[in-house]
Design goal:
Elements: H1 3-6, H2 8-15, H3 17-24, H4 32-47, E1 52-57, H5 63-77, E2 83-89, H6 92-108, E3 117-120, E4 124-127, E5 130-136, E6 151-154, H7 162-174, E7 179-183, H8 192-207, E8 212-215, H9 217-223, H10 225-238, H11 243-248, H12 263-269, E9 285-290, E10 314-322, E11 332-341, H13 346-360, E12 365-369, H14 374-386, E13 396-400, H15 404-419, E14 423-424, H16 435-449, E15 451-454, E16 462-465, H17 474-480
Parallel strand pairs: 1-7, 1-8, 2-5, 2-6, 6-7, 9-12, 11-14, 12-13
Antiparallel strand pairs: 3-4, 4-5, 9-10, 10-11, 15-16
Helix pairs in contact: 2-3, 4-5, 5-6, 9-10, 13-14
Length: 501
């Protein structure tokens, strides 16, 4: 008598991932959007088709849980006949180790697979004769020699260098015709995941078989209403145009058309409000300062003649902070002035900035580069502006220390402001034959010259700057510091008297 006839429930459990998940792991039961790609992957393994798949889920939607249960069932199915799967992640700890631990817990957590475990160590789990090995795809790691005759997975593939994958991992599947899966977040066009998705979509167009599985947040929210509420709150906070929202929840690929500020993005920040030379009554302002090194001979503000395009300047951007024009209460930052000082001594610069903050703009905030030599100027400004001066209130000074990570975060956040329509420039005066117009022209040139790359590896680090051959990015950095104002609550504080509720 056939197994299916004698033990119909057991047969279903070992042949169907939905039954395996719901019967053996009910606390982690997979949902339809998880089952669909997993079943396609298992079918490719079973038929030895050697297909490739790309699987992209919205953030925290259960991609890794799907992978763990898929691997658990695959090990069970192949426990007698053997076979090997390799799971590669950008790092072993924590990424590959987390995948290993999740699989271990699912195998130990049900009575059918727990007794069959024959190996549990730092990098491998074996069920009977079948094994899954977890490795790092870091350039410094040594993954050569691993086999993958059943399945090869690139988890968080956007952070794996394509050259490493092609040289070390792709041959593991090519020699055995193993099924290959690329999982992760899309981000930019240059990632391994994005490259494979383009290739797989071309194959889909030829034969109509689905190979790319995208599960954006609305699909997940249909099964998990609480998840939908969480994502809606994040969208309300950051805006639906923020790079994080676009890539992690809507699964959109970021622009890859050269510069960080392509023509459409520059067009988006253009406003029609005039440039100002002092504060308007009732408006609130912030001064954003990128600090340059000082030289023995100083120059006046806006003195950008001669070789100054090739010299770093202390750059000031003044923004009006408007928290009343949007129904969601999010701030809009309107640039109303910008200035630059090249070679000016910080002692003289300090006095000018204090005057601008207190008397010209009556600023509420000053965001200042406090990196390296800028730390001294930032400290002096903080001391000076913390004191009341006549009727002038104190000014909150917010230091910003640049590092690879903080500049990356600033870049992503600045793009979020721009793409959500919350950063606007004054009406361009770059064509006017004035010193102020020349500053605007220099700023616009820096925008066009700013290049970027998203580094492989954890964190999606954004590296952005103006190449040395094209000058500096001081004015652009100054403008980007507007994003740091998002870390405070810019809404006006309302004082309540005693007894008022």
């Amino acid at each position: 008598m056939k197994t299916a006839q004698r033990y119909p429930t057991l047969y279903k459990v070992v042949t169907d991932l939905g039954a395996f998940s719901s019967m053996l792991l009910p606390a982690y039961r997979l949902r339809p959007y998880q089952l669909a790609p997993a079943r396609a992957i298992l079918e490719s393994v079973r038929r030895q088709r050697g297909d490739q798949f790309a699987v992209v889920f919205s953030r925290q939607a259960g991609k890794d849980e799907m992978l763990a249960q898929l691997l658990a069932l695959l090990l069970l199915q192949r426990s007698r006949h053997g076979g090997a799967a390799t799971i590669a992640a950008p790092t072993f700890r924590p990424q590959a180790a987390l995948s290993r631990d999740r699989l271990r817990d699912r195998l130990l957590g049900n009575q059918l697979t727990a007794p069959l475990i024959t190996k549990l160590d730092a990098s491998a789990i074996r069920l009977g004769q079948a094994q899954v090995t977890f490795v790092s795809a870091s350039p410094a790691a040594n993954a050569r020699g691993q086999t993958a005759d059943l399945l090869l997975v690139a988890n968080e593939a956007q952070d794996i260098e394509p050259r490493i994958w092609d040289a070390v991992f792709d041959p593991m599947a090519a020699s055995t015709n193993a099924t290959t899966v690329f999982m992760g977040t899309v981000w930019s066009q240059s990632t391994l995941l994005a490259r494979q998705m383009r290739h797989l979509r071309a194959l889909e167009a030829k034969d109509g078989r689905q190979r790319v599985w995208l599960v954006p947040w609305p699909v997940v929210a249909r099964d998990l209403p609480a998840y939908g509420e969480h994502v809606r709150a994040r969208i309300a906070q950051l805006g639906d145009a923020h790079p994080f929202i676009r890539t992690e929840y809507f699964l959109e690929e970021l622009d890859g058309d050269g510069g960080l500020f392509p023509p459409h993005r520059i067009a988006q920040i253009r406003g029609d409000h005039p440039r100002l030379d002092r504060a308007r009554p009732g408006a609130r302002y912030a001064l954003l300062i990128d600090v340059a090194g000082e030289e023995e001979s100083g120059s006046d503000p806006l003195d950008l003649a001669g070789d100054d395009d090739r010299r770093d300047s202390t750059a000031l951007t003044v923004v009006e902070v408007d928290t009343t024009s949007r129904p969601d209460g999010q701030a809009v930052y309107r640039v109303v002035d910008r200035r630059a000082w090249t070679g000016t001594r910080h002692t003289a610069l300090h006095d000018q900035l204090v005057d601008l903050a207190r008397h010209v703009w009556k600023a509420s905030w000053v965001v200042v580069d406090a990196t390296g030599i800028g730390a001294g100027l930032a400290s002096f400004l903080r001391t000076s502006l913390a004191r009341k001066s006549g009727s002038s209130p104190t000014v909150e000074v917010i230091p910003f220390i640049f590092s690879g990570a903080s500049k990356s975060r600033l870049g992503w956040d600045f793009l979020g402001l721009i793409d959500s329509g919350r950063f606007r420039e004054y009406r361009s005066d770059a064509d006017t034959p004035t010193e102020a117009g020349r500053v605007t022209a220099r700023y616009e040139a820096q925008l066009r010259a700013t290049t970027y790359e998203v580094l492989t590896g954890p964190g999606n680090v954004l590296r952005w700057s103006v190449p040395a051959r094209d000058g500096h990015d001081d004015l652009v950095i100054s403008a980007a510091l507007a994003a740091e104002l998002e870390r405070i609550d810019p809404r006006p504080r309302i004082a309540l008297g005693h007894g008022v509720t």
